[in-house]
């Protein structure tokens, strides 16, 4: 049902009819923005968030109405996709409960004849910025709405797809019920192509099977080609365009802001925030003092460090987690430098990737292992057992004392073809945000950390 309102048109859908609306014909942020303005900030029921760095989705519900602090929302690192709660007292005369993302869901006692008036009120809420008072900083990553800027960013996206930019990812842009037998059907370029997952590599494989040159893809192709969830009997469920399923991190020449594509919408990280981010992490970049990477994989590289250097011990794949807990590696390489009491002991974590998802795992590995070593006696004992024979070669390490005194360093070593002088600029936008968060965590733990680049010559 379509209801004209001012110079806009409201579409009321029933059941799954909203799938029939052409993408791009509606305001992608309408429901969320109205909800932020209408909801009582102390009466929130649930939130949906997504971390653009790895497309991780999280839905949080609480049994009682609460404020946003209970939902552990990190506005520096996540995008709020959905919010639900009770409306403010000012708006209860036309709406009681409200939730929204692209679409808006409300409960209201308004009669059908008053729908045009209701739409006027909702449009007014959509155009308001009042939510910034109740939720300061919640939208630090702002939506790009300038058509000319969107056009430039879309052109950059097409270049990235054609050239297989490693910053590109593809994933289902919605929550998926994996308790059922779900498969992904790629369609739009002809033929049937069903796989167990949604991934950019699989989309490229589909194009190759159908004889579609990736170098010739257009924006219209990305909108026409789709991924569709199907069950074991190939009955279709939700479907999404490839463009909506793509995740991309990029910048424009001459523009110091960062841009991120998520669910067919471009988001801008403002220049001031970018500068703040850069200032916070510039001082931790250093020379990791490790040889070039000329190996088959990370495991081979780490193993060769122990074989070729007396002061290094490979701990890749080892476990320091307490009994019964999920395996946690202490680091990839334990390194000892210097002589006597002035020796420096470093836990080195190596990653051959500058993709956001890989770096996110790297930083989590580093902070997670250090938290265990500082809090679990069993983890220290396991680390000591793993390095006892190494101490016979390099002398007593005193790891327990060093951990207690916080004199063990953590070093992240990123294998890349990029020049080390690039520093923070070598990292994708959301990897810088995650690195900043890791730096804060290490500071709270009282542990010094650094990050540097290993030359990839493989």
What features would you describe in this structure?
This protein has helices at residues 30-38, 115-126, 131-134, 147-162, 200-209, 219-224, 242-245, 271-281, 298-308, 356-375, 377-394, 399-405, 429-445, and strands spanning 2-5, 8-11, 39-51, 56-66, 79-87, 97-100, 104-107, 141-143, 169-170, 183-187, 193-195, 226-230, 236-241, 246-250, 258-262, 265-269, 312-314, 333-337, 344-351, 408-416, 449-455. A five-stranded antiparallel beta sheet has the order 4-3-5-6-7, with helices on one face. By secondary structure, the protein is an alpha+beta fold. A hairpin with a 5-residue loop joins strand 10 and strand 11 (193-195). Helix 8 crosses helix 13 (429-445).
The global form is: globular
The unreliable regions are none
Q: Write out the strand line-up for the largest beta sheet, numbering strands in chain order.
A: 4-3-5-6-7
User: What class, by secondary structure content?
Assistant: alpha+beta
Please bin the fraction of helical residues.
25-40%
Radius of gyration, rounded? 25 Å
Report the total helices.
Answer: 13
**Percentage of residues in DSSP E strands:** 25-35%
Main sheet: strands, sense, barrel: 5 strands, antiparallel
| N/C terminus separation | 59 Å
Question: What are the defining features of this structure?
Answer:
5-stranded antiparallel beta sheet; alpha+beta; 13 helices; 26% strand
Layout of helices and strands:
Layout: E1 2-5, E2 8-11, H1 30-38, E3 39-51, E4 56-66, E5 79-87, E6 97-100, E7 104-107, H2 115-126, H3 131-134, E8 141-143, H4 147-162, E9 169-170, E10 183-187, E11 193-195, H5 200-209, H6 219-224, E12 226-230, E13 236-241, H7 242-245, E14 246-250, E15 258-262, E16 265-269, H8 271-281, H9 298-308, E17 312-314, E18 333-337, E19 344-351, H10 356-375, H11 377-394, H12 399-405, E20 408-416, H13 429-445, E21 449-455
Parallel strand pairs: 19-20, 20-21
Antiparallel strand pairs: 1-2, 3-4, 3-5, 5-6, 6-7, 8-16, 9-14, 10-11, 10-12, 12-13, 14-15, 15-16, 17-18, 18-19
